[in-house]
Specification:
22 helices; Aldehyde Oxidoreductase, domain 4; eight-stranded mixed β-sheet; globular; about 950 residues; Aldehyde Oxidoreductase, domain 3
């Protein structure tokens, strides 16, 4: 969505101006383990039923052996020099004066850096910022110019030894004399980042064709006149003009609403926060001028982009470059390590390291000063409700968000927030707009929630207030307006599958926290003078995915039945290495014996891409897909809650194809042995009767077969014993047709396929395995979802509701969370314990957003370099009702339900639930987050 970084052919040599790209995962230093590659880290890992007792990486985690990128130095990296240089950045803390240079007098001769890098050095050496519309136009502030944003680096200081580096860094911290400023100037922020609008008027019912919608017609895009978003003129011209006419009609309908309608207008604010991932941004880079190889070690959610953009950065400079060798380590970033500029600063440090590796690593002050932030949102909402029926007639929301001084994903975050604002409600008429503004604030980017926490929290607070004004129970009002299966969202698209929000609402209404809240309030307040009791409800549904999700997965087994599994997914904390292995076991009846994650070398998949899944015209995409090796995207970063459903789709498809092409025919062959067709002949046994589990294969009353025996038979017959697939989703799965030897044409939910044949394969099949030892089958036809589907904004949702029980001390204003109960619907759980962990961690983050976390945007904010956890308050165990929290997950409708991505939705519902609970407690409504003791005392004064 929005501005993107191309992944143009990262698998191909010469992808970036003739530069080879080599991406791999760190090998652990002695005594440490980066990832547990064996599927059974202990003999007790799996239950007899094949379920995991703990995460695959659990032993390494709890013993402290699991390493992160931050744990590595040059001496730990094979082939790197043992010498290690260190670097730090000096930052501008004023954005209204020109930068006039640095003064390092405070360091004296003893702590003088071995190398100082300024903007002018970069210019002299031909270094420019790749993708300046995303990362900004300059790395370091040019002398005589005003910084683009608070905290922008002005100089890079490199030291050849740690002791002097550490002493110097401590010496200059908080010293205002080091960075020199000139005359006062206007702010120097970049142009604003974008504006979009989603207008829909239904055709009189949810089923009728819309009069206007983004999906049927067009998203509306705006421009800027100063600090004001300007939209196209309404009229009968193009689709956007007709959309603005629809928007004007909605405004007229709001103005004409009579006494039979409640017209509620409110403004809301959601603050900037720091995601506070425990691993601060870091990297280590060695530029070997003799070989022209740039060795990079970095923590990233999107390693392929880091490698490619690093190549672009260096290949246009004076530094010769033949190869980028990127080593990636475990990290957790909550989105903040996806498409971020810090690795490029690490590359700069390495280029000026004079042949030595240079480590650049933020401490926590620097992380607050420069790390990506969650966007602040200002939201002006209007809700029109029929007083007689309680049905919503119209909702509008006009949002603006502050993206800071680099574009990053601000425009995308803004419009995702707008498309999510309807939350769980059906809206006959809606008009949601979002404008992403540039400012001198610290850069905001991809952060957990991605605009939806901000917009849906406001919607839920507004619905509660509407219920109060109408005298309707808040859950009853929600039930009257709930979004049901088959209805259209505010973009005019019908979401995937069954929507079960009504079921959740009924469960919440019956829960004792809700049904007994009035009596509990009386009892609690009588027993606790000076404290007020309240219960609040929040209910949201969050999209998952980006509209351009792609993945690669490979499964094969040897004649002994040992299963090998390879996947592009890498661990970001949610347990992907465990869940993907379990998915394999669910289909093959056995988890893999060997696993490899974060795989980037796929010689069996010679795919080509321009990586323009959002911007390529439909005509051009239709032309390109005639090439059977072209795909809109090779693979996705680990983001957007994409692992279990999207990346898991590749896993599931590879396993299913392996069953169809190898295990089923091999099992039939074994059952058919003997006179008259063996045990199989008398029975009518079909593919749908096949059952795999516990290492055994059975179907329709046949004798159980050991997986090993079936694997040996598949190899003897020369069947496909290895399958590699590539998948692509644009709010709908791509399907393609393949001419598979011995099977004919198959239509599969993938767009690329490679097979490896068993040992007994005929020579012609063996001769076909010429692509990395595999037979790459060029597809005969492909059906990519049209680019127009991106106007849907989203078609995949996961819902969650939370009941929050609070007490409010009316003297101090302190809110205490007494308990909370959540209800989640996530399709079929792959590993329930991982789902539980996501719920608990996400709720803790939401509690912080609701009650504690806050960053000022400008001069008194983190850009001044003085912020740390001594000033920034995070929730602790005592704040999250650790021992009184409960949750339930709706059972799947069937055992064939797909799993849903839930890593983001789990943090959102608790935010409005707490806000609504505080209102129930003290009778005051809050529209600005966080709800602090100071705000409560002021409201009660």
């Amino acid at each position: 969505m929005g501005a993107g970084i191309s992944r143009r052919g990262f698998l191909r040599a010469g992808a970036a101006a003739g530069v080879a790209l080599n991406v791999s995962f760190l090998a652990p230093p002695a005594g440490a383990r980066l990832i547990e590659t064996l599927p059974r880290p202990g003999p007790d890992w799996l239950t007899p039923a094949g379920r995991p007792r703990y995460r695959l990486d659990a032993i390494a985690k709890v013993t402290g052996a699991k390493t992160f990128a931050r744990d590595y130095r040059a001496a730990d990296l094979p082939g790197w020099p043992r010498e290690q240089s260190h670097a730090f950045l000096l930052h501008a803390t004023q954005a209204d004066r020109s930068f006039e240079g640095i003064d390092l007098t405070v360091l004296g001769e003893a702590l003088k850096p071995d190398r100082i890098v300024l903007h002018e050095d970069l210019v002299a050496d031909g270094i420019t910022v790749p993708h300046p519309d995303f990362f900004g136009d300059v790395f370091l502030v040019p002398k005589g110019e005003t910084p683009r944003l608070l905290g922008q680096p002005v100089a890079l200081l490199i030291y050849r030894d740690f002791a002097r580096y550490d002493a110097a860094k401590r010496k200059v911290r908080f010293d205002d004399s080091v960075v020199r400023y000139g005359a006062a100037t206007p702010y120097n922020q970049p142009p604003h980042y974008g504006a979009s609008r989603y207008v829909r008027i239904d055709g009189g019912s949810p089923e009728a064709e819309d009069r206007y919608s983004p999906f049927k017609d067009s998203v509306i895009f705006g421009k800027f006149s100063g600090d004001k978003a300007v939209w196209p003129s309404p009229g009968e011209g193009d689709a956007m003009a007709r959309g603005m006419a629809a928007a004007a009609q909605i405004e007229q309908d709001i103005a004409a609403a009579g006494s039979d309608a409640l017209v509620l207008k409110r403004s809301y604010f959601s603050q900037s926060i720091d995601a506070s991932a425990m691993e601060a941004d870091n990297g280590n880079v060695w530029y070997d001028a003799a070989t022209g190889v740039l060795h990079v070690m970095a923590a990233s959610q999107s390693p392929y982009e880091v490698a490619e953009v690093s190549a672009e950065l260096v290949s246009t400079s004076k530094f010769p470059l033949k190869e980028v060798d990127l080593k990636v380590g475990y990290t957790v970033g909550y989105g903040t390590k996806d498409h971020y500029i810090f690795p490029l600063f690490c590359v700069l440090a390495g280029l000026y390291g004079e042949g030595r590796p240079v480590r650049l690593a933020n401490d926590r002050f620097e992380q607050f000063q420069t790390g990506l932030k969650r966007h602040a949102f200002w939201m002006d909402n209007t809700l029109v409700v029929d007083r007689g029926t309680g049905k919503f007639r119209i909702m509008t929301g006009h949002f603006r968000t502050d993206g800071g001084g680099r574009a990053n994903y601000s425009f995308s975050v803004a419009f995702v927030g707008a498309t999510a604002a309807q939350s769980i409600y059906y809206l006959p008429q809606s008009d949601f707009s979002a404008a992403a503004f540039a400012s001198r604030a610290v850069e905001a980017g991809s952060t957990r929630g991605y605009g939806t926490l901000q917009s849906m929290s406001a919607t839920e607070m507004m619905v509660d207030e509407a219920a109060e004004l109408l005298g309707i129970d808040p859950i009853e009002l929600r039930l009257r307006n709930v979004f049901r299966s088959g209805m259209k969202n505010t973009q005019g698209a019908i979401p995937a599958g069954a929507l079960r929000n009504e079921e959740i609402l009924l469960k919440a209404r019956a829960h004792p926290l809700w049904s007994e809240r009035a009596q509990k309030k009386k009892t609690f307040e009588a027993a606790n003078p000076g404290k007020k009791y309240g219960v609040g409800y929040g209910h949201v549904q969050k999209d998952y995915g980006t509209g351009a999700e792609a993945a690669l997965a490979s499964l094969e087994f040897d004649p002994r039945g040992r299963i090998s599994f390879r996947h592009v997914a890498h661990e970001m904390g949610p347990g992907v290495t465990t869940s993907q292995a379990i998915m394999v076991g669910e289909i093959l009846g056995r988890v893999p014996d060997e696993t490899e994650y974060g795989v980037v070398r796929w010689p069996q998949m010679p795919l080509e891409t321009t990586d323009e899944p959002y911007t390529l015209s439909q005509d051009e995409e239709d032309r390109r897909k005639q090439n059977p090796r072209w795909t809109p995207r090779i693979t996705s970063p680990m983001s957007a809650t994409n692992s279990v459903y999207y990346l898991g789709h590749a896993t599931r498809e590879a396993a299913r194809i392996l069953v169809d092409l190898a295990l089923w025919p091999a099992a039939r062959s074994l059952w058919s042995r003997g006179t008259g067709g063996g045990a199989l002949a008398p029975y009518d046994v079909r593919r749908e009767d096949l059952r795999l589990g516990g290492g055994m294969i059975n179907a329709g009353g046949m004798p159980p077969l050991a997986f090993e025996a079936v694997a040996a038979e598949a190899h003897r017959l020369g069947l496909p014993t290895g399958v590699t697939v590539h998948t692509f989703n644009r709010w709908q799965w791509t399907e393609a047709e393949f001419d598979v030897p011995e099977r004919g044409r198959l239509r599969l939910s993938i767009d690329a396929l490679a097979l490896r044949y068993g040992e007994g394969a005929p020579e012609e099949h063996k001769r076909s395995m010429t692509t990395g030892g595999w037979h790459f089958i060029e597809r005969a036809a492909v059906s990519y979802p049209p680019a127009q589907r991106n106007n849907a904004g989203v078609t995949y949702y996961a819902p969650m509701a939370t009941l929050a029980e609070v007490s409010v001390d009316i003297g101090s204003g302190t809110v205490t969370l007494l308990s909370h109960h959540s209800i989640l619907e996530c399709g079929r759980q792959v590993v329930p314990e991982l789902v539980s962990g996501q719920i608990q961690g996400g709720i803790a983050m939401g509690i912080g957003h609701a009650l504690k976390e806050y960053l000022p945007l400008y001069e008194d904010g983190p850009g001044d370099g003085t912020w740390n956890w001594n000033r920034y308050e995070l929730p602790r165990a005592k704040d999250v009702a650790l021992w009184s929290q409960t949750a339930e997950v709706l059972p799947p409708l069937s055992d064939s339900d797909p799993p849903k991505g839930i890593a983001e939705v789990v943090m959102i519902a608790v935010v409005p639930a707490i806000a609504n609970a505080v209102t129930h407690a003290i009778g005051k409504r809050f529209h600005d987050l966080p709800i602090t003791p100071e705000k409560i005392r002021e409201a009660l004064s």
